[in-house]
Known about the structure:
This protein is α/β, with parallel strands linked by helices. It has helices at residues 29-44, 79-96, 112-118, 146-154, 156-165, 171-176, 189-201, 205-217, 223-237, 241-251; strands spanning 5-10, 13-18, 50-55, 59-61, 101-105, 108-110, 122-126, 130-132, 169-170, 182-184.
Amino acid sequence: MSKPLLTSLADGVLEITLNRPDQLNAFTVEMHQHLRAAMEDARDNPQIRAIILTGSGRGFCAGQDLSERDPSKKEIVDLKVTLSTNYNPLIRMMRAMEKPIICAVNGVAAGAGANLALACDIVLAADNAKFIQAFSKIGLIPDAGGTYTLTHLLGEARAKALAMTAQPLSAQKAEEWGLIWQCTPADELMDEARKLAKSLASSATLGIGKTKQVIQAASTNSLDQQLDLEAETQGELGRSADFKEGVQAFLEKRPASFTGK
Ligand code: T3D
């Protein structure tokens, strides 16, 4: 049986591929376990300075594998438990990780699959990809952070309409609305994602990780709190090897060689 997740590491970039193409990479418990382990490795391994998340085959991820929720199986699955055990720790970990996660959405992203993509830091999507908040079709609400991400990125009007209608949102419109960073021709998606990841992996990783955290904090902080957080974080970064190297390189008119420290 093929592995539900593929990983490869090169040039400081960990590439993670969801690998259940016949089910559009829908989430099983097993795939969750593998993805969590890969993300933990990405977080803890200093060799890894950027992550790409993508899917194999024609889809990115169709959310929860609904065959694990087959009502005829009699066993009642408590979705509060499955979210608390699988989806929520994953999203929390990805948001807390002080490394950039690029999502290369290679095809349809539905349900928790769409919201997994939107939890990444920079989202590129193939021009034939679409985002579907499929939950309302099966009587659920958007999860895996969807109610938060959609509302913060799009505002209530668009978040509610996407969630209530489950209407597919094209990659082009997702870019136009500011839901994702970039819609890319499908045949250029992985090259673009790899180029971007490689460049982030050789840049000032510590500063990029802190940028992620401080921008995320802005959703709930006041301006005063944010100014304090910026000062505190800049103080820390001002003592880093990367800051020293960046300034030195600028003054010497040469490219900087960052170590991510
Ligand atoms: O349960 C909990 O723990 C709570 C958490 C829930 C999180 C969630 O994600 S709930 C939402 C679950 N996802 C969905 O409701 C989406 C279901 N899928 C679709 O609506 C459609 O497949 C798509 C719109 C995504 C794509 O449509 P299309 O026409 O391009 O492909 P298809 O023919 O429907 O799917 C291709 C195959 O993938 C097909 O299998 P087959 O017939 O070739 O053997 C289909 O059954 C399978 N597949 C697609 N999505 C899922 C799936 N199999 C299991 N689970 C899926 N989610």
